[in-house]
Write a structure and sequence with these properties.
about 25% strand, alpha+beta, globular, Nucleoside Triphosphate Pyrophosphohydrolase, 2 domains, 4-stranded mixed β-sheet
Length: about 350
């Protein structure tokens, strides 16, 4: 579902002698601490350089002064897109001044080390200012942006998506009003306060005793497109329990030795992807035929050959799935879809 950097170095936590003898029976995650393993860094949408400056969100005088400053930079976001200049290997996020920003809900993104304030506006995108600039979705721009721009666009898209969809109080149905510099909404009738929703979802690479990787095709995807398994964490469930449940529900495979790797926001519209590795204790695949159309085990050589024959395409670099597969594969991944 990240920048195509080199694979994270470190041993495979399953094949490097992780002690699984004290874990719960197959199909259940460990009841104790999650096993340590390689941690993913530099994920495309988990980067940033601008301090979010949450302590300023209630300072109305400072917010007004910052918005009036010609030095302030504004990101306009609409339906998951923002204006960018796109090249072959890099992109640049385009800003407007407060005076040129469209009407829309305003939110503070943060303040950088040079005291420059950044705001976002959920509103209609302006016309591109120059050739080579266009409205770009976060999925496309994310891997190409600098750390600063990737963090700003991800935050702006996440908040804009929330404001576009959460407009009324869930208690009484009254229209809500933004406050806290656009990081919350309040009902004027019952005074209830509401904050941006984030849905935790787990995503996991399952490997077997021969270090083969389990890849699957969602029933809604076109032929050849595959990825690792993912699903939402349910109410009253830990992320590790969600890993075991989703893998078993979708493929019939049971796992243990669940290992946390890292997380990445995925504000399309409001998910937080929690990345894991897990070891299979049963390898016979029985897909549910509803969410998963097919699933297969692949060695590295088999995966490479299938991609070279045009039989498979892997997740794009913006996704945490891409990077998790990369940690297993051991080098840059070929054949990603865009």
């Amino acid at each position: 579902m990240s920048s195509a950097a080199s694979a994270v170095e470190g041993p495979d936590p399953v094949r490097a002698g992780a002690d699984i003898s004290r874990l719960d029976p197959p199909g259940r995650p460990s009841g104790g601490p999650v096993l340590t393993g390689p941690v993913l860094t530099d994920l495309a949408l988990a980067r940033g350089e601008v301090d979010r400056s949450s302590y300023l969100r209630a300072n109305d005088a400072w917010l007004a002064e910052a918005w009036a400053s010609a030095d302030t930079r504004v990101v306009v976001a609409e339906h998951g897109r923002a204006q960018c200049e796109i090249g072959d290997e890099q992109a640049r996020l385009l800003f407007v001044s407060p005076s040129d920003a469209p009407d829309g809900i305003r939110f503070l993104l943060g303040v950088d080390d040079q005291s420059t304030a950044y705001f976002g506006v959920a509103g209609p995108l302006p016309d591109p200012p120059a050739d080579g600039a266009r409205a770009v979705p976060l999925r496309e721009a994310g891997p190409l942006l600098s750390d600063r721009d990737a963090g700003l666009m991800t935050e702006a898209v996440a908040l804009a998506n929330w404001h576009e969809t959460f407009t009324h109080c869930p208690r009484c149905g009254s229209p809500t009003d933004p406050f806290a510099a656009g990081h919350a909404r309040r009902c004027p009738v019952d005074a209830s306060e509401h904050f941006p929703r984030v849905d935790p979802a787990m995503i996991v690479l399952v490997t077997d005793a021969d270090d083969r990787a389990l890849l699957a095709r969602n029933a809604l995807w076109p032929e050849r497109r595959v990825s690792i398994l993912a699903g939402f964490v349910e109410a009253g469930e830990s992320a590790e329990e969600a890993v075991a449940r989703e893998v078993q529900e979708e493929t019939g495979i049971t796992v243990r030795a669940v290992t946390y790797l890292g997380s990445q926001p995925w504000p399309m519209p409001q998910s937080l992807m929690l990345g894991f590795r897990a070891a299979a204790t049963r390898t016979q695949i029985m897909v549910d035929a509803e969410e998963i159309a097919e699933a297969h085990w692949y060695s590295r050589a088999e995966l490479t050959a299938a991609i070279e024959r045009g039989e498979l395409r892997l997740p794009p670099p913006v996704s945490i799935a891409h990077r998790i597969i990369q940690t297993w594969y051991g080098s840059d991944l070929p054949g990603s879809w865009t």
